[in-house]
Write a structure and sequence with these properties.
Blueprint (H helix, E strand, L loop, with lengths): L8 E8 L3 H11 L8 E8 L6 H8 L4 E4 L5 H15 L4 E5 L3 E3 L15 E10 L19 E3 L2 E4 L4 E4 L14 E2 L7 E5 H7 L11 H11 L3 E12 L11 H18 L2 H15 L4 H11 L11
Parallel strand pairs: 1-2, 1-4, 2-3, 6-12
Antiparallel strand pairs: 4-11, 5-12, 6-7, 6-11, 8-9, 10-12
Helix pairs in contact: 1-2, 6-8, 7-8
Length: 308
């Protein structure tokens, strides 16, 4: 007999890397959520922090399971340790949550979507944390905290780009319906544990960026839907540990991983377009993109680039 979602065990997995301030704020908000009749657990994976994150987090939250990797395994590697821990402890649901987030008290409302056995994974409505918008001078003070970062995902298969629906829009209720989505962002990604076990962990080849898109597509290929649930709300500080989009770290991993993803899933004509673009990058001015393409061509994945 299938248990009702509210009777099941949930593990929130949070990866920390020298981000104790953000992680503590996230944990503070998690300890205030409504979880009546829910067996809720938190697992923090420390990705080789060199500050005093481990000591501070373990001292303030002794109830939180803290796993130390000893080195930076990236988003995928860190989360995979948490996923494995949750599976080994009989989780029913696994919730990947960025450390630079604050959650609403009703964030677990996404559980109701799993009443439908066809639903394999869900994502939250995500706002920019106030003052962390991409275009900070665009909004009135009263808009802050209601500027959308993610309200479902869209994939442009012709150009092999994924984007967030509603990004930069002020929320006026335009995305308030539960809806099937092309992908779920790893910022807040909850999956049935049995499906995570079936499709496998995040692909460590990605290391950082687009592994959430790959996981979404693998869940869909297994025959399940991925859903956007707007009643589940979080606020995101946006790139708290990896730097702002457009920096060299982002440029390298996004360029390389887009090729990995595209040649795995994209239509044939898009693969040809990606190959032509890769050749342009090889002879372009960006040494970061050139390295990214070379590494993708020879299958050199995982952690291959660090900012000095």
């Amino acid at each position: 007999m299938t248990k009702h979602p509210n009777d099941q065990k949930i593990f929130a997995v949070i990866v920390n890397w020298n981000g104790k301030t953000d992680t503590l704020a996230c944990l503070d908000s998690l300890h205030k959520i409504e979880k009546k009749h829910i067996d809720f657990h938190i697992c923090v994976v420390d990705n080789g922090s060199t500050d005093d994150s481990v000591q501070v987090i373990s001292r303030k939250y002794p109830d939180v399971k803290l796993i130390q990797t000893g080195k930076n395994l990236g988003y995928s590697g860190g989360n995979n340790l948490g996923i494995t821990y949750a599976l080994n402890h009989k989780a029913d649901f696994i919730w990947l949550l960025n450390n630079d987030t604050i959650v609403d008290k009703q964030v677990l409302s996404f559980l109701s979507a799993f009443d439908d056995p066809a639903v394999g994974a869900c994502g939250s409505k995500i706002y920019f944390a106030p003052g962390h918008e991409f275009h900070r001078d665009r909004y009135r003070e009263s808009d802050r905290g209601r500027v959308i970062w993610y309200a479902g995902g869209v994939i442009d298969w012709d150009n092999m780009y994924a984007s967030h629906r509603g990004v930069d829009e002020v929320d006026h209720g335009q995305y308030d319906q539960n809806q099937e989505t092309a992908f779920i962002t790893g910022c807040s990604f909850i999956v049935r544990a049995e499906i995570a076990q079936r499709v496998g962990n995040l692909d460590n080849r990605f290391y950082l960026y687009l592994e959430d898109l790959d996981w979404s597509l693998r869940i869909q290929k297994a025959g399940y839907t991925t859903m956007y649930i707007p009643t589940s709300v979080i606020w995101h500080l946006n790139a708290g540990s990896s730097g702002k989009p457009g920096n060299a770290l982002h440029e390298y991993y996004f360029t390389r991983n887009r090729l990995l993803l595209g040649f795995k899933y994209a239509p044939v004509r898009t693969k040809f377009a990606l190959a032509k673009e890769a050749v342009r990058f090889l002879f372009g001015q960006s040494s970061v993109r050139r390295k990214a393409v070379l590494d993708a061509c020879i299958g050199r994945f995982g952690k291959q680039y660090e900012c000095n």
